[in-house]
Amino acid sequence: MCGIFGYVGTRKDAGRIVIDGLKNLEYRGYDSWGVATKVIDGIVIRKDIGKISTVDTSSFEEESTLAIAHTRWATHGGVTQMNAHPHLSEDRTIAVVHNASWRTI
Q: What average pLDDT does the segment 23-37 reach?
């Protein structure tokens, strides 16, 4: 299971908004977390292992009106910063989060 929270609006603290939203979804995933915020010159990604409840939202100072965030409960793959979402496209123009289970038949 995972938790996904997004924000698009006029407020310029989108990173803080989605972190607060993830804190309400922590029961959906507590292994790792991540946030992508759209800023003027690209996308800022922050992600780490551990509980979202320990994250201080005051450190999210980027002005952004668009953000997506993810909290992960690892059902496949290790609990690592690399496996935490969001993931970026090769050209760093698209950030992706997903909630999927993989099964080999």
A: 85
User: CA-CA distance, 77 to 10, in Å (whole number)?
Assistant: 36
Nearest-angstrom CA–CA distance, 88 and 68: 12
Answer for the pair 52, 19: CB distance below 8 angstroms, yes or no: yes
Cα angle at 74 between 72 and 80, to 5 degrees? 85
Q: Which of 74, 45, 71, 70 is nearest to 60 (CA)?
A: 45
| Residue 91 per-residue DSSP state | T
Scan for tokens 């299971």, then name that residue: 1
Residue located via tokens 């993810």: 70
Flag whether pLDDT at 72 surpasses 80: yes
Compute the radius of gyration of the chain from its Cα atoms.
Answer: 13
Query: What letter represents residue 12's amino acid?
Result: K
Residue 8: Cβ within 10 Å count = 10
Whether the pLDDT of residue 31 is over 70: the answer is yes
Peptide bond into 86 cis (omega under 30): yes
